[in-house]
Design a protein that fits this description.
This protein is an alpha/beta fold. The protein has one domain: CoaB-like (Rossmann fold), CATH 3.40.50.10300. It is built from nine helices and 14 strands. The strands form four sheets. It has an eight-stranded mixed β-sheet with strand order 7-4-1-8-11-12-13-14, with helices on both faces.
């Protein structure tokens, strides 16, 4: 199949979405934080990440460059230690990877906390598409691999941006897979970023699991279907809502942006305002699953404002993140100025 006739199996059926008029889980308290991180083992590689993150932050802090932590992709919940089965969250990391590029273009250094093998800045243009990467290539008469002429103009632009980020140490890639890895790493990076205060920005675009299986109930090996009579019953616990701990404790001076994805337009604003009241951060960017690539709503404590692509922009293939990121940066600048007036 080719062109518009391709079959896409990754798009969920929004007509059968569950009712989201349900109360949110309560914000995490200090005791929830203590219990969670005490009862679960940190990733064995965390010390290496700590060194890399600290070096990255110190490097850009000396250059007085602002740093944004962009989280991207979905988390998994393993059902076995030797994992064969797991529960996943729907997210390819498109919003996060695209946003990271626009932050880089606007002078920020980016710590990109992403689901391993999800979309990455710059390479996203040529991965996770309906075209095979080899479709961009051709063989020259002398047997060398070359980029097809029709793609060269676009590809050289992307390549130059990527090289600029690499050569100037502007992008640090930090992976996660499980929800435990994500939360441990988020706390670590947040505490490292706290040293630069209001110059740090948190752009939390990852799709984080709402439920997890406590370590004490995770079997070591693959669950055998014969032992359970052909049924699998899993008793999950709610993941503590650590956004409150990020705001209050881990990075109290930084600006924090969260996302609220819904399928029902009638409750989107209400849910976004509820998140602001619950967690006391600065901005929620609301979006609907059906239209998230074309419009979002900025919800603050005092206002709500839609950001939309025009029909011409949609037809031209403009990323809505090219509109989102400059607006976020304006708000971050105002937040920095306000914190300076307060002596923070």
């Amino acid at each position: 199949m080719s062109g518009d006739k391709r079959v896409h199996t990754s798009v969920p059926d929004t007509e059968t979405a569950i009712d989201r008029n349900l109360p949110e889980f309560p914000a995490a308290k200090p005791i929830d934080e203590d219990n969670y991180f005490r009862l679960h083992k940190p990733p064995p590689y965390l010390s290496q990440i700590s060194r890399d993150v600290a070096d990255f932050i110190n490097y850009h802090h000396l250059q007085k460059r602002k740093i944004v932590l962009v989280t991207s992709g979905g988390t998994t919940v393993p059902l076995e230690n030797n994992t064969v089965r797991f529960i996943d969250n729907f997210s390819a990391g498109t919003r996060g990877a695209t946003s990271a590029e626009y932050f880089l273009e606007n002078g920020y250094a980016v710590v990109f906390l992403h689901r391993e093998f999800s979309l990455l800045p710059y390479s996203r243009h040529y991965s996770h598409t309906t075209n095979c990467f080899l479709d961009y290539m051709t063989e020259s008469e002398d047997g060398k691999v070359e980029v097809n002429a029709e793609f060269q103009k676009e590809m050289i632009v992307v390549l130059r941006k990527y090289r600029h980020a690499q050569n100037n140490n502007l992008l640090l890639l930090v992976p996660f897979t499980t929800v435990h890895q994500y939360l441990f790493t988020l706390k670590l990076i947040a505490q490292e970023l706290s040293v630069i205060g209001s110059d740090a920005l948190f752009y939390l675009a990852a799709a984080v699991s709402d439920f997890f299986l406590p370590s004490s109930r995770v079997p070591e090996h693959k669950i055998q279907s014969q032992e359970s009579g052909g049924k699998l019953v899993v008793d999950l616990e709610p993941v503590p809502k650590f956004l409150s701990r990020l705001v209050d404790s881990w990075a109290p001076i930084s600006m924090i942006v969260s996302f609220k994805l819904e399928t029902d337009s009638s409750i989107l604003i209400k849910k976004a305002k509820g998140a602001l009241e619950r967690y006391n951060h600065q901005l929620v960017i609301g979006n609907l699953l059906q239209s998230r690539k074309y419009e979002v709503v900025f919800v603050t404590k005092d206002s709500e404002r839609w950001v939309r692509l025009s029909k011409d922009q949609v037809d031209a293939g403009i990323d809505i993140e090219s509109l989102i990121i400059p607006e976020v940066i304006k708000l971050h600048k105002s937040s920095i100025e306000e914190k300076k007036k307060m002596g923070l």
